[in-house]
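REQUEST
  id: r-88c1
  op: predict_structure
  target: Plasma membrane ascorbate-dependent reductase CYBRD1
  payload:
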Amino acid sequence: LVSVLSSGIIVYRLPWTWKCSKFLIKLIHAGLNTIAMIFAIVALVAVFDYHNAMNIPNMYSLHSWIGLAAVIFYSLQVFLGFAIFLLPFAPVTVRAAFRPIHIYSGLTIFATVIATSLMGITQKLIFSLKNPAYSASPAEATFVNCLGVLLLTFGILILWMVSKPQWKRPPEVNAKVLQPFGATPEGRKGESTLTDGSNGVKSDLKVNSEAARKQNLKLDEAGQRSTM
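RESPONSE
  id: r-88c1
  status: 200
  body:
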């Protein structure tokens, strides 16, 4: 779940995706988040079924509270993302207003998922390790604690990648995608080039006409001398 969710977050930040159209990246982003949401819902149902089968109380720990809240808000995030950004019904003003909320809530949910995973790891170790106990630091505890540290490091790296301005999708790529068919984002440059070219032609014609006028004056002067 964490790997799929992180892939959906950084798909806009990968340099080799900048050459792709923004709509294609949106589809990949939406697809990865949909897969992660399905995984989360299936895992949540499996946990409740297991607790009911083993006569374990449901929703008694902080891990379960935050985990359920993360799944609910993440599902809402995915549905709103589809409705506002992917379907062509929402006005541009609504998309612009909801975009920072969408980004901030997505990063907050990702951080919440990391925290929930760490709490779940600790809770499982406390309840599972009896002889030797978790406090005795057996090999299983050390191994799982190392996995928790790696998970935390992974989450920090993802958030760091998202916060780097250098890794942001270049605006000129977006501008190129939004251009009408047959237009180029360098239209102004092309226009200036054409203007410079026409000015150059005009200047060349002016020089040629000036040279022709001087040549005619020389011929007239030569004719006058010959007549005299």
